[in-house]
From TrEMBL:
Its EC number is 1.1.1.-. Keywords: Oxidoreductase. GO terms for molecular function: oxidoreductase activity. Residues 5-175 form the Ketoreductase domain. This is SDR family NAD(P)-dependent oxidoreductase. SMART domains: PKS_KR. Pfam families: adh_short_C2 (PF13561).
Length: 254
């Protein structure tokens, strides 16, 4: 298979990023697998084998993102999967905790979009992984909800700014997907069941569910699609978000 497109995947060492790396590689892309977990990224790239490579990048550190693009060379696809969350009431949350989530999920999205915009050619594609929480609030998840709402809007602004240069910018907003990120939440009794009860399709997502949409958004089949934030959640956006905080409180009182 000829590898005629190069894809940088940030946050590619785990979960959705790793599943997307495998799917884009199978679709004929040469992958540059970047992560703040450099060892994890190197191990994953070795699993993919040559000509795929790995790199260190922390989306909160602009120098590292700039260096990533410089060393990767010409690139056609940028996928930003970096993100994490915390749980706590606004009234109790230290501002540093709020900032740390916004720094990765929103400011990091800005830094990646900035350098993707500088480096992608005409026909290039930027995809960010936002979240169902960008539109559906969850008590106890103020930083994550606010940051992902910002990332979804940033996606639309970037699509307007980069569209005239033929660069498409989209986001995927997944619902609950079982990954290392969500494992702690999944271990709290009631959380997964509550999510599933509030989907139309009656199941949580898999990283592969998201990877399939990534491949589509990066493909020529999506060549007229930009500025979209794709709800990908088994129909959960039609209902309500699980009461994560309520389940945490119940566990704390048990
Ligand atoms: P994951 O398994 O934890 O993978 C995320 C990867 O990104 C990890 O390798 C992580 O490294 C890396 N990362 C974190 N902060 C970074 C930074 N500052 N710079 C570079 N890399 C960084 O999580 P996931 O579930 O696949 O999540 C991927 C994306 O989907 C995130 O943006 C998340 O918010 C979003 N999302 C996930 C779900 C879900 O249910 N899983 C739902 C909606 C949206 P470390 O291991 O060192 O942290």
């Amino acid at each position: 298979m000829s590898m005629n497109r190069v894809a940088i995947i940030i946050g590619g060492a785990s979960g959705i990023g790793w599943a997307s790396a495998q799917a884009l590689a199978a679709d004929g892309c040469r992958i540059v697998l970047a992560d703040r977990d450099a060892d994890g990224a190197a191990a994953r790239a070795a699993e993919l084998g040559a000509p795929h490579t790995s790199a260190y990048a922390d989306v909160t550190d602009e120098d590292s993102v700039q260096k990533l693009f410089e060393t990767a060379g010409p690139v056609d696809i940028v996928l930003n999967c970096a993100g994490f969350s915390n749980v706590g009431l606004i009234a109790d949350m230290p501002v540093e905790d709020f900032r740390s989530v916004v720094d990765v999920c929103l400011n990091g999205g800005f830094i990646v979009a900035k350098h993707a915009g500088r480096n992608l050619p005409e026909g290039g594609v930027l995809v960010s992984i936002s979240s169902l929480n960008g539109r559906q609030p969850a008590a106890g998840m103020s930083a994550y909800c606010a940051a992902k709402a910002g990332l979804s809007m940033l996606t639309q602004v970037a699509a307007l700014e980069l569209g005239p240069r033929g660069i498409r910018v989209n986001a995927i907003a997944p619902g609950f997907v079982r990954t290392p990120l969500t494992e702690p939440a999944a271990m709290i009794p009631g959380v997964v069941e509550d999510y599933i009860d509030n989907t139309a399709l009656g199941r949580a997502g898999t990283p592969e569910d998201i990877a399939g949409a990534v491949v589509f958004l990066c493909s020529p089949q999506a060549s007229w699609l930009t500025g979209e934030v794709l709800d990908l959640n088994g129909g959960a956006h039609l209902k309500r978000y699980p009461d994560v905080l309520g389940h945490v409180m119940k566990l704390a009182q048990a």
